[in-house]
Amino acid sequence: MSTTPYPLNVLFFEKEQNTGFPATKEIWYYDYRTNIRHSPKKSPLRYEHLGEFLECYHPEDITKRKETWNKGNEEGRWRKFNYSELIGRDQTNLDIFWIKDDNLIDLENLPEPEMLIDEIIENIESALTSFKTIKENI
Description:
two-stranded antiparallel ribbon; 138 residues; single chain; alpha+beta; elongated; 2 domains
């Protein structure tokens, strides 16, 4: 469960200097929500948490931007998509995920059903024992 109050993407678009027409051919994404946990009281977002983004962004010279995501580093948070990649998706949705969320169940690698059932029974029995102990001490 994410404790980030409002998960979001920040997208940057560019326009032609003198014409005002869109110049964006690629959209760079920095995924700062998958497996990132902040809460207003215990772990608020601070400037220093954005260090990697600032290193990747290079506002002074966008030609220095290099993706941190690749087939060998699927946890890389900085990635670009070109127009054709994006238009091939749902055209109204620029909310893109590529990092595996640790909170999601990996349906491809579930334990055997009998093991899952045994674990559920063990958890229920443990909870029941705890409730009985609480009742005895009231």
